[in-house]
């Protein structure tokens, strides 16, 4: 499904499940409940918890829920998350021998256990569909997708591989972004204060909690997220192959050449900010720049890529981050230990795990 027509078809099938209106209409209540649960759990701890760990757990629960169209009990979320972490920790380790005492063998065992759970849930979903009952989530879309001749488009193996791929694409990317957001807000209390004031106004209009209307009106929070991701994109580079010869900036690029687009550099040298000083210095965290006519121009969301491979989960990820800022702004204070190194993981992740103390306001 990664190349050419297969990839195009994959996007056609999956796009409806990621549409902004579907995220706002179908997924938002569960996302809000998961975010609220994570904030409450951190507050109930009464002391420091790992901010990065909490965000990984939160985004894992969201992506499982959205993919499979159902809520898993907390203990099962923990078990699935543990399996996924074990899989990702060892999958690239050497030697690549499937032996139970090697990290690679442990990763393969975790992968098999995850796929068994997908099998179990897929069988239940297919049985429900056969009885004419609706199957929610992306799983529902995949098992009911048909090819041009009206045959089932994806067999169980294809569905499982895509589910695993979505776990990769949609989990750590969002937790890294949320973790960085928490750290950035800790270091910019004046921005946190503005977010809180925005919530006060929006709660007057829409009521407490998270609703599609409130999310739509979170203009400042939206700018804060986009600015945080401009400075700290999860993916440093986008990769493409030239499909024909072309010339750019005096450099001739032949068809078939591999092209890397360094996102952070491109963003910093964006003519909208390049060479500016003071508040508009490209290296300064300044959400206000995203509210200027230049900042509001489409196309600045490069952290989610661009064009035919633009991130399918952009609305889902934005909904998770905005729901987090909404509920934080309405009821919690977060103190984080930002005195840490940011090391390579999925994007840059805090070496100290970003200990944070969450208190109810
Ligand atoms: C803050 C969180 C996220 C970031 C920063 C992010 C970033 C990206 C980037 C940079 C790409 C490559 C785009 C390109 O090459 O032009 C991508 C692709 C993709 N993302 Fe995300 N993503 C995030 C969240 C999600 C979520 C929640 C999902 C949902 C499952 C998701 C699903 C995908 C998929 C399926 C693709 C492949 C699209 C294709 O090849 O056609 N992403 N993402």
TrEMBL record:
Superkingdom to which the source organism belongs: Eukaryota
Protein's name in the database: Cytochrome P450
Gene3D superfamilies in alphabetical order: Cytochrome P450
Protein family: Belongs to the cytochrome P450 family.
Signal sequence interval, chain numbering: none
Binding site for heme: 311
Keywords recorded for this protein, A-Z: Heme, Iron, Metal-binding, Monooxygenase, Oxidoreductase
GO biological process: sterol metabolic process
Entry keyword Plastid: no
Cofactors demanded by this protein: heme
GO molecular function: heme binding; iron ion binding; monooxygenase activity; oxidoreductase activity, acting on paired donors, with incorporation or reduction of molecular oxygen
Keyword Magnesium recorded: no
InterPro entries registered for this protein in UniProt: Cyt_P450, Cyt_P450_CS, Cyt_P450_E_grp-I, Cyt_P450_sf
